[in-house]
């Protein structure tokens, strides 16, 4: 390949599965597998991987890929009658050459449009006609944007209801050194306690045991501060009122076949989601949900990271 960076390249990944590689001029990159419509890599301009993928991930259908950004649709978790997290993450998506236009403020050439429509088999387990369009964009500064557009294409006048999440696995240096800002004082549903509702008490969320919580009515911006790497991830989201925070910790990690025993120390899921209040679409209606991820150097301030600078900057 010539030294000039091609903004988008289609090639084969693990086990011959097709993937799309996005590259930005300054050196950042992202990889998207058509299997699951799943982002499996997001690297900054120094080539550092910002997402977590398990070393034991099974990249073989029908198993979902453990790590990156799985798409949970039409069901998040066990909130419904379908398999855990629905079926979008283990279906083959197709590249859409000419998607219907939608306004985008990015000038980036590094993007791909994917589409998922239900198969006959899907219609048996979830009898609803839909088109799910996913645009994945790598911005000029290395930001990663995912925009989902889900349309009810029923010709029989049938509405449908779904829950949704971008199940993002962030790569962190050490989970015990990480804190999450922007969710303090909010209510959450605790999946470890029968989805019971509690109110977050701490100043910032830190981690010393298994956590699996759905935070409700969350702000459009959440920050993950990684002290050791002096890096802060900023998640900006639209149309996704909830935020799921998950780390399996040691016992659950050991119980998962596609997850290394100690890998829980190096990952954290913070997921832009719509879980508590499912979304209903009438025929012809479209829903849109977007998340934008950026990684910025954290500034030290009196021995502490200064999250206010991150949360206040645009």
TrEMBL record:
GO cellular component: cytoplasm
Record bears the keyword Isomerase: yes
GO annotation terms (biological process): carbohydrate metabolic process
Family the UniProt entry places it in: Belongs to the glucose-6-phosphate 1-epimerase family.
Protein's UniProt keywords contain Isomerase: yes
Annotated Pfam families: Aldose_epim
Source organism (scientific name): Nyssa sinensis
Name of the protein described by the UniProt record: glucose-6-phosphate 1-epimerase
């Amino acid at each position: 390949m010539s030294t000039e960076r091609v903004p988008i390249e289609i090639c084969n990944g693990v086990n011959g599965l097709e993937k799309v590689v996005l590259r930005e001029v300054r050196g950042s990159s992202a990889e998207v597998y058509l299997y699951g419509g799943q982002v499996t890599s997001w690297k900054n301009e120094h080539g550092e991987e910002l997402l977590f993928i398990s070393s034991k991930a099974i990249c073989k259908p029908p198993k979902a890929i453990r790590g990156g950004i799985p798409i949970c649709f039409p069901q998040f978790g066990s909130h419904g009658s379908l398999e855990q997290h629905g079926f979008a993450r283990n279906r083959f998506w197709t590249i859409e050459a000419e998607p219907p236009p939608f306004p985008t403020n990015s000038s980036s050439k590094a993007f791909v449009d994917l589409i998922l429509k239900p198969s006959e088999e899907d219609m048996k387990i979830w009898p609803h006609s839909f088109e799910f369009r996913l645009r994945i964009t790598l911005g000029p500064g290395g930001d990663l944007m995912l925009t989902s557009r889900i349309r009810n294409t029923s010709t029989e006048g049938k509405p449908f209801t779904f829950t949704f999440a971008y199940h993002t696995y962030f790569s962190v240096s050490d989970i015990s050194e990480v804190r999450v800002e922007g969710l303090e004082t909010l209510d959450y549903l605790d999946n470890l306690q029968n989805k019971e509702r509690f109110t977050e008490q701490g100043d910032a969320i830190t981690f010393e045991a298994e956590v699996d919580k759905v935070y409700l009515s969350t702000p459009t911006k959440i920050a993950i501060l990684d002290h050791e790497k002096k890096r802060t991830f900023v998640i900006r989201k639209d149309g996704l009122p909830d935020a799921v925070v998950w780390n399996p910790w040691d016992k659950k990690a050991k119980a998962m076949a596609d997850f290394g025993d100690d890998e829980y120390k190096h990952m954290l899921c913070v997921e832009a989601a719509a879980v508590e209040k499912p979304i209903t679409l009438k025929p012809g209606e479209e829903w849109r949900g977007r998340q934008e991820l950026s990684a910025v150097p954290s500034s030290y301030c009196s021995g502490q990271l200064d999250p206010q600078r991150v949360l206040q900057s645009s």
